[in-house]
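Table S2 (text version). Query chain:
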Amino acid sequence: ERVKEVRITLRLTESPVCLVADEQDMGMHLERLLKAAGQKVPVSKPILEVNPHHPLVQRLRDEADEDRFRDWSHVLFDQALLAEGGQLEDPAQFVKRLNQLMLVLGAR
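Corresponding structure-token output:
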């Protein structure tokens, strides 16, 4: 519900995912600037582009546990949001998810 669309991209090399604006939508940076200036901004959702060759995405593809799959998905989205200069809706939840996933990885 946080994205307009999810699509595979081959242009990413080091990042597992990124957020991009749809052709008809304004970019996220411009949207933040207008909001900061007190301007009304039309509501739009970004497109999540996924690098299918990244090890984190491959791990997500193979994840059988639905809760961990959801947590991984949220963490990757939040990372893409931070990389674009955005702010997390719930930073505490991001940290909680990240810590839980690191504990699972450490146990393997």
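Notes on Table S2: The beta strands are 5-8, 17-20, 47-50. The longest strand covers residues 5-8.
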